[in-house]
Amino acid sequence: MDRSYDVAVIGLGAMGSAAAYHLAARGQRVLGLERFGPAHDRGSSHGGSRIIRQAYFEHPDYVPLLLRSYELWEALERDSGSDLLTVTGALMVGRPDTRTVAGSRDSALRWGLAHEMLEAGDIRRRFPTMAPQADEVALYEERGGFVRPEAAVAAHIGLAERAGADLRFHEPVHTWTALPGGDGVRIATGEGSYTAARLVVCPGAWAPRLLADLGVDFTVERQVQYWFAPRGGTAPFTPDRHPVYVWEAPAGVQVYGFPAYEGPDEGVKTAFFRRGTACTPESLDRRVHPAEIAAIADHLSTRVPDLPGRFLRGAACMYTTTADEHFVIGAHPEHPQVTVACGFSGHGFKFTPVVGEIAADLATEGTTAHPVDLFEPRPRRAAAEPQEVAR
Ligand SMILES: Cc1cc2nc3c(=O)[nH]c(=O)nc-3n(C[C@H](O)[C@H](O)[C@H](O)COP(=O)(O)OP(=O)(O)OC[C@H]3O[C@@H](n4cnc5c(N)ncnc54)[C@H](O)[C@@H]3O)c2cc1C
Fold first, then answer.
1. 192-210: pLDDT as tens digits
2. What pLDDT shows up at residue 385?
3. Which of 139, 142, 212, 383 is the most exposed place for a label (fewest CB within 10 A)?
4. Does ligand 1 have an atom closer than 6 angstroms to the CB of 317?
5. 344 lines ligand 1 (CB under 6 A)
6. What are the residue boundaries of the FAD dependent oxidoreductase domain, all occurrences included (predicted)?
7. How far apart are CA 213 and CA 368, in angstroms?
8. What is the mean pLDDT of residues 255-273?
9. Atom of ligand 1 at shortest range from CA of 244
10. For residues 224 and 329, what is the distance between their CA atoms, to the nearest angstrom?
11. What percent of the chain shows pLDDT beyond 90?
12. Residues 176, 212: contact at Cβ < 8 Å?
């Protein structure tokens, strides 16, 4: 069997399902190939919630993409009829000179984003679950909140199929080959081979394998999400009272969390940001161990003291991290007909719909009006942390 398409998309997780939708909506004949089933829990896009925020400490260049992302999240909710984005407010906590606080403030000032700076006493009064030290402050932004990853992937898949995309699940790609002359690709799976004029590769944690010749080093990391039943119940943690937060400790360790968005019996989710161990998709240890539960409970005990009451469950997930922690989105340097979107470094989900739009621009026009210079596929060097933050 050898069928021909305008664009093939490898990987139908967060970014691939969004790309397939945006491409199909533009009238492209789209083939999508996915190793697992729709909206699965084997990659990087499961666990019920992902933080979304605009005052972006990672780099101010992400802000225009976030503003577009919010528009597209709302459009996706309307078009799919799914509940995807919940605005709760977001609190970025730490000493004033931490990357979390200073970087968020820098982005907010640079782009004129509405925000408030709160002293420790203000934080305790407005958010009584939080117990900052006297020298800790926070940036609060009203537009922050969370999105629902599984529902979002399912929404993009449903709309892509409705727009005519041919999406095939449980069909891993073995190899892809760019045809000479910059035109066309051939893809081989266990079921057969396909050709397409252009290719979009969104492989998540499988990037080291499917994009080994890209010239970018990726580190795949195991990262655990934890759910606790708070002491005294979930009432103070409901989404109408409790923001999402990222909290940076003096040693640079960041912990983050959510309100109780799944109802009173499902607990409250929290996790360390970037405290993972290197793994591969095959070697990922999905068990959650008592020592790591004790470590996060101990870390929270002086910050959100009621949260680590009783441990309910945990789930391992993977980050695919680049040396500078910035995404990799652009044309493959050796094959102009191939667009890559990977290396989301643990902070990509909130951008899912705009990444789909960018990938569709690049695959159909060869260019995009969105600012993507930071994401160029090229070797990366670790950024010396403070240099990115104007103080
Ligand atoms: C614990 C955790 C917490 C996070 N928290 C946040 C957060 O709060 N906010 C935020 O913005 N981001 C967050 N992220 C990051 C975000 O979830 C990821 O950046 C995003 O999900 C990555 O999407 P992806 O499409 O690259 O990967 P995935 O969604 O994993 O998709 C890749 C897909 O490619 C498929 N695939 C791979 N190889 C093949 C092949 N050979 N053939 C066919 N299919 C293939 C895989 O099966 C998979 O479905 C978090 C991630 C984790 C793990």
1. 999 999 999 999 999 999 9
2. 52
3. 212
4. yes
5. yes
6. 6-362
7. 24
8. 95
9. 8
10. 26
11. 93
12. no
Cα 20 to Cα 25: distance, rounded to the nearest angstrom: 8
**Ligand 1 atom with minimal separation from the 341 CA:** 26
pLDDT tens, residue by residue, 235-247: 999 999 999 999 9
Residues sharing a CB contact under 8 Å with residue 373, sequence separation 6 or more, in sequence order: 61
| Nearest atom, ligand 1, residue 210 CA | 41
Q: What whole-number distance in Å separates Cα of residue 161 and Cα of residue 164?
A: 5
Q: What is the mean pLDDT of residues 338-365?
A: 98
Structure tokens at 54: 């605009």
Contact of 258 with 146, CB cutoff 8 Å:
yes
Query: What HEC string does 320-379 produce?
Result: EECCCCCCEEEEECCEEEEEEEECCCCCCHHHHHHHHHHHHHHHHHCCCCCCCHHHCCCC
Model pLDDT, residue 384? 60
SS3 for the chain is CEEEEEEEEECCCHHHHHHHHHHHHCCCCEEEECCCCCCCCCCCCCCCCEEECCCCCCCHHHHHHHHHHHHHHHHHHHHHCCCCEEECCEEEEECCCCHHHHHHHHHHHHHCCCCEEECHHHHHHHCCCCCCCCCCEEEEECCCEEECHHHHHHHHHHHHHHCCCEEECCCCEEEEEECHHHCCEEEEECCCEEEEEEEEECCHHHHHHHCCCCCCCCEEEEEEEEEEECCCCCHHHCCCCCCEEEEECCCCCEEEECCCCCCCCCCEEEEEECCCEECCCCCCCCCCCHHHHHHHHHHHHCCCCCCCCEEEEEEEEEEEECCCCCCEEEEECCEEEEEEEECCCCCCHHHHHHHHHHHHHHHHHCCCCCCCHHHCCCCCCCCCHHHHCCC
CA of 318 to the centre of ligand 1 (A): 7
pLDDT in tens, 94-118: 999 999 999 999 999 999 999 999 9
Q: What is the pLDDT of residues 295-318, one digit of tens each?
A: 999 999 999 999 999 999 999 999
Phi, psi torsion values for 322, nearest 5 degrees: -95, 170
pTM above 0.90, yes or no: yes
* CA gap 306, 228 in Å, rounded: 10
